[in-house]
Amino acid sequence: MSDFLLNWLINIPGFAAPFALAALGLIITERAGVLNLGAEGFMLVGALAGVGAMLNGSAPLLALGGSVVAGMLLGLLFAVMVASLRINHVISGLALVFFAQALVSFIASAERWNNKAIAGLEPVFLGQDVVIFAVPLLTLAVLWLLNKTRFGLSLRAVGENPGAADAAGIDVTAMRFAAIVIGAGLIGLAGGYLTVAVARIWVDTVVGGRGWIAIALVIFARWHPWRAVLGAVLFGCIEALIPRIAATGADVPRYFLQMTPYLATLGVMIWAALRGSDRWAQPAALGQHHIREERD
Amino acid sequence: MTTFRTFFRLMAASAILAAQGVTAQAEFAAVGNPSPAVILFGQSDDGGWSQSIDEARGTLEEELDLRIPMAEEVPESATAIRPAAELFIERGANIILGSAFGYSDTFKELSEQYPDVVFINPAGTTNGDNLKSVYGRTYESQYLCGMVAGGLTESNKLGFVAANPFGLVNWTVNAYLMGARQVNPDAELTVVFTGAWADPVKERAAAEALIEQGIDVIGQHVDTPTVQIVAAEKGIYGTGHHRDLSEFSEATQCSSIWTWDKFLKPEIEKIAAGEFEPAPYGAFLSIAEGGTDIACCGPAVSEELKAQVMAERDAIINGKHVFAGPLSDRDGTERVAEGEVLGDGDLWGMDWFVDGVSGQ
Questions:
Q1: Which end of chain A is more exposed for a tag (fewer CB within 10 A), N or C?
Q2: What's the CATH number where B70 sits?
Q3: CA distance, residue A112 to nearest chain B CA (Å)
Q4: Chain B: residue nearest A245 by CA?
Q5: Average pLDDT, chain A
Q6: Least Cα separation, residue B307 to chain A (angstroms)
């Protein structure tokens, strides 16, 4: 039993980290008022870049750097679409996911990266790799960035009231560009972690809807970094628990367990709706464009 | 896409049972010079299901001296399947080969719209005068892989990672343990269902969790070679599905593989000769008919064990049924009476496990 608990606990962070990283990236983006439904796409390009770098002989951490860059590059495209061209956020995000799905399949097939085993990221302490230890630090960094810096204040202002921010001299387009690209880098890292550290293989279904779960997590967390990490750990607990219970041969209510994180998400949404607004509620201008000459 | 696929496999059993009977017409409009085209729902180099069909395409091109065009990653929706099929037909294709349950309905519509074209759909469920769905009796090949697993295990604990619990997956799980017990009566099998056909994250988690429980040979019925790769990392043996997965992992000692070309070559020749035989419930191919087979064996398998496996393969080809009575499930309910074998309908609807299988 103690082995069971130990194996379970050791495996939780690895499952939680991709959700946490993606949720942090989404929070930065959405705090600037950009609704980002493209998480699955950013994760896919990050995941592929990580595998591609590993298969071409790069070290795991360098490969994860490649995932960040790949996420940021796709982020630039998304930023041009929603911040510069002011295309509908929902449509751009969804189109980006489909684009990324086709792009990664195309590249992986052309480069013959499918199904190849890669070495993966080695644990450094307590069975965990460096990225696991970086997640709490990154969470603190995101909190500091959003709450303690002028940049963060401007970013949140753009997300709450772009008109007022503009009047105060903040470049709304530039702020949104920055928020999208930084956020996309983190989401790309989440994807890279999934292939380089967790799955250690590329198939084009590897992200498997985890980007969408991250989007749900952000809503669950009410756009708050710590709560998002907490939610990620909750998902990690379930993902690490289900196969372990099943492997003991016990008859588990698998579908019930799979349901629990979403049940928690729904519960938080209902709780938030009943409680009314708070400081960490949905950014007021989420999904809205700002066009200077137009009145809100 | 995964969702569609899960749905397709879940529906396969009941849909096949419910497939409408068609009046077998002896005379089908002869096709003349065969001109096949292939529509794959996955990537042609996915390492598994889609690649097995694409490899058959290559073999057929060579053996029949044909050029067979292929479209890959065609999703399981009418708006994607129809243009691909119609483009091939416009270019002169008269045999359209599919690759998915999700193509079933669109292929049915197309077959009625194009009566001079023959449609063949692996994993499909619809049939007609010029439409045939095909699947392999994978319990035969997985039974043989189970023998390999039973012979290799030292802990007598076998693991199995599968996608979703329903007929065509459950029969591989049961057959795997029955094969293992053929050579090792003490073998036990624990199965973990991932709930997804191709999620390497979940497959790795399942394999690692099983290895933590002390299994030393692992089988699979999921679409990626992740389980085999984990087996190699942890120093245990594995058996694969879809294709010979020793390509991806040194742990793989036997694989249940698809041999579509063995079925398709004579089928295309029949179509060309105007002798296509419609089948109201499609074709359900045994090793003898060329739907499925094994790639065996890896270096860890002794000559003696290999000979045993090959002898059973011969027995199966000569008519031995894996699910022959008397056979009871793990709750003690009799499933096949003495002297009888499990019917095809009961195979597709299999929702029980034999004694020795743990897990859902």
A1: N
A2: 3.40.50.2300
A3: 8
A4: B209
A5: 90
A6: 31
Q: Is there a contact between B200 and A248 if contact means CB atoms under 8 Å apart?
A: no
The tally of CA atoms less than 13 A away on the side-chain side of residue B112 is: 8
Same domain, B188 and B75: no
Task: Tell me how close the Cα of A44 comes to any Cα of chain B, in angstroms.
Answer: 13
Q: Same domain, yes or no, for B129 and B26?
A: yes
User: Mind listing the pLDDT tens digit for each residue in A121-133?
Assistant: 888 888 899 999 9
Please report how many Cα atoms fall inside a 13 Å half-sphere around the Cα of residue B81, on the Cβ side. Answer: 25
Contacts of A190 in chain B (CB under 8 A): none
Residues B34 and B154 placed together within one structural domain of the fold: no
Please indicate, yes or no, whether residues B315 and B171 belong to a single structural domain of this protein. Answer: yes
CATH of A2-119+127-275, one of 1.10.3470, 2.60.40, 1.10.760, 2.60.460: 1.10.3470
Residues in B lying within 8 Å of A, measured between beta carbons:
1-2, 43-47, 73, 159, 190, 192-202, 204-206, 208-210, 212-213, 223-226, 229, 232, 248-249, 358-360
Per-residue pLDDT tens digits for B199-218: 999 999 999 999 999 999 99
Rounded to whole angstroms, the Cα distance separating B161 from B103 reads 26
Domain coverage including residue B244: 139-258+292-358
Q: What is the pLDDT of residue B13?
A: 42
Residues on chain B touching A4 (C-beta within 8 angstroms): 212
Cβ distance of B212 and A254 shorter than 8 Å: no
Q: Cβ contacts (< 8 Å) between A206 and chain B: which residues?
A: 199-201
Query: Average pLDDT, stretch A235-258?
Result: 84
A194 vs B contacts (CB less than 8 Å)? 201
Q: How far away is chain B from the Cα of A108, in angstroms, using its nearest Cα? A: 10
CB contact under 8 A, B206 and A249: no
Residue A92 backbone dihedrals phi, psi, to 5 degrees: -60, -45
Which of the four pLDDT bands, split at 50, 70 and 90, describes residue A1? low
The residue ranges of chain B whose pLDDT is under 50 are: 1-30
A206–B200: do the CB atoms touch at under 8 Å? yes
DSSP B190-257: EEEE-S-SS-HHHHHHHHHHHHHTT--EEEEESSSTHHHHHHHHHT-EEEEEES-GGGT-TTEEEEEE
pLDDT digits (tens, 9 = 90+) for B163-172: 988 899 999 9
Tell whether the torsion through CA atoms of A221, A227, A232 and A238 is positive or negative: negative
Structure confidence at residue B182 (pLDDT): 95
Size of interface A-B (CB pairs under 8 A): 108
pLDDT, average across residues A105-132: 90
Q: Are the beta carbons of A246 and B213 separated by less than 8 Å?
A: no
Cα A223 versus chain centre, distance: 12
